[in-house]
């Protein structure tokens, strides 16, 4: 699907400049808004639309009237609970000072929790293969103004626009403590997040033997998979499943124990 860049309904010098910069970064065309509503632009251009506002970038996929934009999402309430009890942190064994690679960044909610845990001595990298999603999230993590307690952790996350397997293949052995993957579920679940408008844009590729082999080569401590509770990927790829009663998704872990 083609994507174009435009400004908010009433453009300013700031939003016009943002639109130019965004289009240049992503190699896309800028289309003047001319006070057209989104549904009209969708009809005229048959393209997904990135709207550059003063405070954030919003993506309107074709046929969607609700935009996708960065928001801490589930990280907002998870960050208020004891982090050592967060299921991702518990299964991964992630601690302060660690390096965390999120192979499937999406909304960056999991990466944000990991970033809170690793702190200023740690490192978080997030791979996102869809360039538009990656850029909306990259800009959001950089500029989000609410929830100041999360700013440092947001700004720490380095967003890489690349397929995770390609990124992993270029890495040295044992260079991250934890490697995490959360591919799109093959079974649809009711989503409370604002990721829902992006279902069609996201990369729906599933876990492969090569992906897991590369993750194991790169991880010192653990490789973690999140998947639908009915997924057989845990067993297929050798993850030890942590059953979470009454939840739609489970975590699985492969312990590497290469840290000493
Ligand atoms: C289920 S979402 C991840 C949600 C994320 N854990 C969060 O907390 O918001 C999966 C995301 O990973 C991306 N993705 C899927 N396969 C990928 C791959 N092989 N490499 C990089 N990104 C991938 C999709 O485009 C989508 O944005």
Topology:
Layout: E1 3-7, H1 13-26, E2 29-30, H2 38-45, E3 48-52, E4 57-60, H3 74-78, H4 87-92, E5 99-102, H5 109-118, E6 123-127, H6 131-143, H7 151-156, E7 157-160, H8 164-169, E8 176-181, H9 209-218, E9 219-228, H10 233-236, E10 240-242, E11 249-255
Parallel strand pairs: 1-2, 1-3, 5-6, 5-8, 6-7, 8-9
Antiparallel strand pairs: 3-4, 9-11, 10-11
The structure holds S-adenosylmethionine (SAM).
GO molecular function: rRNA (guanine-N2-)-methyltransferase activity
Protein name: Class I SAM-dependent methyltransferase
InterPro entries: 16SrRNA_methylTrfase_J, SAM-dependent_MTases_sf
List key phrases describing it.
7-stranded mixed sheet; Rossmann fold; 2 domains; 260 residues; alpha/beta; 4-stranded mixed sheet; globular; binds S-adenosylmethionine; 32% helix; methyltransferase; Class I SAM-dependent methyltransferase; rRNA (guanine-N2-)-methyltransferase activity
pLDDT averaged residue by residue? 93
Counting DSSP E segments of at least 2 residues, the number of strands comes to: 11
List unreliable stretches of 5+ residues: none
**What is the distance, rounded to the nearest whole angstrom, between the alpha carbons of the first and last residues?**
47 Å
At the fold tier of CATH, the topology name of the largest domain is Rossmann fold
Pfam family, one: SAM_MT
Keywords: Methyltransferase, Transferase
GO molecular function, one term: rRNA (guanine-N2-)-methyltransferase activity
Protein name: Class I SAM-dependent methyltransferase
